[in-house]
């Protein structure tokens, strides 16, 4: 059986190599006869496939110029049909020898599926009622030297799909639609924030101090200055400097880089949006988050009720708000407000099988309980508020409960979708928090923040009360496009290099 499969595989490879050879021979003939498609500089497209179909009544009998990739051909003597795919979809073209000429028709019959052509012709309906283009002229714009996957089976191998996204986009219309929606989602976010008086800004990607989040940075050497630098893990510290400078509402949508693992929710480079608003707090950020999600869903999808897998997510209802302590109590019965010491917290963690490290304090253990027992239940939109100070080094303390902070995370479909604070603007408190983070670094915590003296100087100049939030754009796109993995919404996800 195995020998038979090997023989079949070798035969298939030989057949493919022969087909690839034929394509190159066809190109050589075209070039020798002065018809090199790669010498064509431009083609003036007047319409796309969907425009023609949607406006048939106005375009019937009119001449249009379309361009796209041949996805199928039916050659029938003196007349043929081909299907051309462009940005908006696909459309049929009727190609007759008497309409385009004998020599061009002979050339057309040699075109391959995958070739890119321009078609000038009249819009009409076939006898079966299909809107089509009656070709008057066909121009070969690019010769495909590779073979597309078989049409009816498509491109299904996920590894190849991610590595060869260009082929994936050609063969899988739903993939292209996902990335069209991604663009629409980001545009909708910008429109909403711009309408609320926010300014879009850009801040450095190469930084001396990669702070603002708990993550390991990528490190590199900057030759020109002979200095070690890092790729940013967050947008936070520079954007807050702008709040100090008087830019009261700012946001940035950009790539950040975290030296961590790959899974369905994580990619080492991803798109983050952070925004900061002076004179508000984390309650203002909760209101903004709800309004933003509803706006984008309604504008892009036309509804606030969306399907994700087998669950309907209702973005139209008020999002649930619950403290981390109450959430842990709800799902475990353990009330961390009744736990006074780290020793007590460790004892309960041991009883419940929650793994912690020697450096972890009571607040850290509360967070671990939340991760182990609560996150899996947070399907509908939920704000989890008031995180312990140990895991929130840049956040204001709650005045009435200083061991907790004015911080929330938004969870939808059991995933963290946003993280927000009442921003810490006390430079003395911030320095103490940074010092505590430095101690964690000394204990081996590679994700802790180090002291940023210039940021502390900015706080000493004076930052107003401020609310800030970070949104995972990729996760938002996953939700709104019903995509199960982050790689499905990244055009070119990080992949391990193939052995050469």
From TrEMBL:
Cellular compartments annotated: Cytoplasm
GO molecular function: ATP binding; catalytic activity, acting on a protein; lysine-tRNA ligase activity; magnesium ion binding; transferase activity; tRNA binding
SUPFAM superfamilies per UniProt: Class II aaRS and biotin synthetases, Nucleic acid-binding proteins
Residues in Aminoacyl-transfer RNA synthetases class-II family profile domain copies: 182-493
Signal peptide annotation: none
Listed EC numbers: 6.1.1.6
Keyword terms: Aminoacyl-tRNA synthetase, ATP-binding, Cytoplasm, Ligase, Magnesium, Metal-binding, Nucleotide-binding, Protein biosynthesis
Cofactor-binding details, from the entry: Binds 3 Mg(2+) ions per subunit.
UniProt KW Nucleotide-binding keyword: yes
PANTHER family with a match to the protein in the record: LYSINE--TRNA LIGASE, CHLOROPLASTIC_MITOCHONDRIAL (PTHR42918:SF15), LYSYL-TRNA SYNTHETASE (PTHR42918)
Protein name: Lysine--tRNA ligase
């Amino acid at each position: 059986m195995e020998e038979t499969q090997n023989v079949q595989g070798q035969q298939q490879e030989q057949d493919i190599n022969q087909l690839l050879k034929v394509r190159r021979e066809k190109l050589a003939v075209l070039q020798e006869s002065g018809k090199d498609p790669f010498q064509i500089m431009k083609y003036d497209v007047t319409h796309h496939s969907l425009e023609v179909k949607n406006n048939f009544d106005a375009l019937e009998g009119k001449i249009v110029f379309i361009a796209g990739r041949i996805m199928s051909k039916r050659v029938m003597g003196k007349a043929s049909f081909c299907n051309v795919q462009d940005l908006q979809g696909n459309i049929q073209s009727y190609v007759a020898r008497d309409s385009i000429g004998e020599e061009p028709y002979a050339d057309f019959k040699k075109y391959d599926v995958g070739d890119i052509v321009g078609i000038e012709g009249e819009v009409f309906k076939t006898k079966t009622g299909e809107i089509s283009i009656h070709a008057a002229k066909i121009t070969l714009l690019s010769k495909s030297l590779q073979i597309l996957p078989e049409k009816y089976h498509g491109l299904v191998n996920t590894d190849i799909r991610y590595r060869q996204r260009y082929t994936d986009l050609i063969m899988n219309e739903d993939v292209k639609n996902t990335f069209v929606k991604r663009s629409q989602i980001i545009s909708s976010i910008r429109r909403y924030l711009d309408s609320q008086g926010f300014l879009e800004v850009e801040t450095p990607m190469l930084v001396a101090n990669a702070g603002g989040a708990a993550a390991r940075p990528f490190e590199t050497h900057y030759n020109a200055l002979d200095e070690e630098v890092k790729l940013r893990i967050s947008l936070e510290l520079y954007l807050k400097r702008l709040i100090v400078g008087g830019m009261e509402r700012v946001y940035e949508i950009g790539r950040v880089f975290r030296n961590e693992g790959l899974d369905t929710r994580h990619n080492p480079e991803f798109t983050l949006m952070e925004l900061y608003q002076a004179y508000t707090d984390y309650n203002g950020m909760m209101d903004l988050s709800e309004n933003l999600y509803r706006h984008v869903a309604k504008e892009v999808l036309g509804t606030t009720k969306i399907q994700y897998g087998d669950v309907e997510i209702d973005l139209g209802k008020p999002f649930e708000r619950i403290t981390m302590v109450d959430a842990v109590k709800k799902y475990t019965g353990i009330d961390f407000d009744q736990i006074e010491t780290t020793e007590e917290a460790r004892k309960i963690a041991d009883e419940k099988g929650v793994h912690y490290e020697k450096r972890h304090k009571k607040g850290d253990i509360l967070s671990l309980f939340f991760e182990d027992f609560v996150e899996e239940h947070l399907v509908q939109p939920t704000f989890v508020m008031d995180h312990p100070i140990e895991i929130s080094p840049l956040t204001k303390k709650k005045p009435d409960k200083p061991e907790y902070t004015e911080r929330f995370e938004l969870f939808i479909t059991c995933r963290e979708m946003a993280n927000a604070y009442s921003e810490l603007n006390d430079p003395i408190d911030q320095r103490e928090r940074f010092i505590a983070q430095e101690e964690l670094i000394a204990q081996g915590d590679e994700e802790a923040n180090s002291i940023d003296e210039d940021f502390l100087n900015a706080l000493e100049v004076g930052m107003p009360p401020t609310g800030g939030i970070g949104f995972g754009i990729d996760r938002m796109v996953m939700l709104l496009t019903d995509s199960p993995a982050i790689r499905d919404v990244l055009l070119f996800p990080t992949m391990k290099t193939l052995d050469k």
